[in-house]
User: What shape does this take?
Amino acid sequence: MSAALKSLFKQPLLAARLAARTSRALPSAVRHNSSIVGDTITVREALNQAMDEEMERDESVWVLGEEVAQYNGAYKVTKGLLDKYGPRRVVDTPITEMGFAGIAVGAAFHGTRPICEFMTFNFAMQAIDQIINSGAKTHYMSGGFAQCPIVFRGPNGAAAGVAAQHSQDYASWYGQIPGLKVVSPYDAEDAKGLMKAAIRDPNPVIVLENELMYGVSFPATAGMSSKDFVVPFGKAKIAREGTDITIATYSRPVGFALEAAELLAKEGISAEVINLRSIRPLDLPALIKSIKKTNHLMTVEQGFPQFGVGSEISAQIMESEAFDYLDAPVCRVTGADVPMPYAQNLEALALPDTEVIYKQAKRVLNIE
Amino acid sequence: MLRSAAFSALRQTKAMSGKGPLFQAARAMASAAGEETVTFDFCDKTFEGYNIETPSRSVTMTQAEAIKLYRDMQTVRRLEMAADSSYKHKLIRGFCHLCTGQEAVPIGIEAAITKEDAIITAYRCHGFTYMRGASPVGILAELMGRKEGVSKGKGGSMHMYAPNFYGGNGIVGAQVPLGAGIAFAQKYKGEKTCTLALYGDGAANQGQVFESYNMAKLWDLPVIFTCENNKYGMGTAAGRAAANTDYYTRGQYIPGIRVNGMDVLAVRQAVAFARAYAIENGPMVLEMKTYRYGGHSMSDPGTTYRTREEIQHMRSTSDPITGYKHRLLETGVATEEDLKAIDKQAKKEIDEALAQAKAIPEPDGTELWDHIYVKGSEVPYLRGRVPEDVHYYNTAA
Assistant: This one.
């Protein structure tokens, strides 16, 4: 990974600029279905609390990664953990992803529960053999003998201005692999509940976070304060109910989809926004149920268009009973099929935002 | 315990080492426990140290243990011969990498460690699987993809496991960081055990091996990085792949010992030494100089990149079983008849195991769906080859 990227986070001015960009107002939480207790919590804090609680609960849980300990985390997600748990359980690694991912998997084989942070999932490509061939497949190849209770976590997808090598969305890559579970939180509730569930899961779990969401605040819902609060895998969340079109997405684009739904509502169009939360297993029943109601599906992701999450959802919908309920083909809104450019205007042209989602929804519905 | 007898003997007999280049005939002494023991000496070419002293050149053990080493090597030899012929009869499919000629390494290692220590290696793993406690039936059945194989028929030759034996790994070099990770967990849990992470001369050039050296040294992990140097990485002679073929020095800041890997006693001695070092201090590198008679795998004749003369020479001068047999005869631990009886018994055991394994059926079709996830934590369903083919898991969500 790049030393250049690391040096970014030592510059307070740049960090502040990034933070300002990430805390743009997002749709109010009134459409959350859980009761609101008045406090707010950022996604970063939620992830931190999840790891803290699970480390307290289970002594075999430990954390490793670049800058997770003394630096308090490149994105401050592991802040305070070293102070609380000490260097045996919070381990700074050299910049050697293949090696430390393999060490983490081996430690998982032998009775510990590592949380392996990748500073971004772009760097995890160096470790992907360990994640997939050593981590995901070993339980099967060993006839159930070896287990790998590991969490691989870190930021996934586009950040801001970090260009082609630092912006890829890996949901479809990991989503393909039997033996892995893959989840991607949007808000703080997702982050806390999915992370706690991931740490408790005896299988290898990939948690695809989003760097631009770390600083975003959400209401702290009542359930979240329980030490056993988990969000189950394979269950999508209806982020906004609607009747005319289903917009299914995950991670940061959930926010854009909610904004687009607001714009559509002003024109009398009722969009149902589904926060998938879980890539593998995918909540197909929730999508089918929604399509039976709305008769239209649009998927949204930041990843490349070919062989992506939307492609998979389209295929599964076509193979299901939902096909008979569609009034239009499933439409995929994706990142552009280009390596992420640096210039801000080009970057914007490469990623779907609120405006793109809003316009495309109308197009799907054949509305001018 | 046998090991402690050997260690006390090591301390007692340290003064005896350096008694000349030729192998010395030893005398049996009655030990305090009343068990017959035997002392073996090593010639000075047996060990070479890199930034560390070498093990004692003398070792004492009970005669029972000495004989077990022979029996185990012979059994593994027979096991691999059975695998060879089964492969040629198309009972074994895919890849099959045999350790014929290298038997001293798995047997010597097991004799020097406890069941609580761990081993991980690559795909030339049948000998290790047996020594770690798997039965010959289980191993042969796994090779033939039968339901009572050690991995339930789901892994095959390259993916065999046993208690504290983590395979059986197919991707060259990947097992080395895994081994360092197992050692990390041993240390994390306060176990006072070590892990042997084995790799070949070909894998020794992998970047992840060096990443593992680095982290193991930084964190004082109790891992023994063990290079089985059989002179060829598949068809490539070691010198064509490695700028430095002194694999025991490749750990740079990690001490290393090169060992005559065709000598089961030398392997045992070096590993016992390394184990004590690793648990106390941190990583070590061992290089076992060994040799395989067969090709890289059953698909490789093994004669396009080396001469038949070389193979024949190694067989006749360095065979681990024949060499050890002479030691047992010379020290009076066993007679020709004793050893012939062991040979016959080993052949019989493996022949019977093979017959048993052949009679085991393949896994049920439903087992396709098992062990993708840990039982009780599966996803709701997984898809088969066509959309209509869906397997549901009954999990208490």
User: Anything to note?
Assistant: Confidence is low (pLDDT under 50) at residues 8-36 of chain A. Chain A is about 35% helix and 15% strand. The first strand of chain A starts at residue 36 and ends at 42.
